[in-house]
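Translate sequence into structure tokens.
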Amino acid sequence: MKDKKFYSTNEVAALAGISRDTLLRWLRSGKVRIDPARDRNGWRLFSEAEKEAVVRYANKITPSPRRAQRELFRKRQRA
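Result follows.
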């Protein structure tokens, strides 16, 4: 199987564990300093390096208290 060269906005957001809207907000505000290519429809196409930059940025952000509380609740339910 051929390796994938480009990723969609939804795929990158899912790999980073964030919503599509958050990813687009980060791109517009310049928090993630990348400029993904666009296809003929104007949709963003992320390279492997751009995808990794988004994932690295998402991993260095401290989760909001609500998100942390949800994770704790899920862990307690499983136990």
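Note: Residues 64 and 70 are 10 Å apart (CA to CA).
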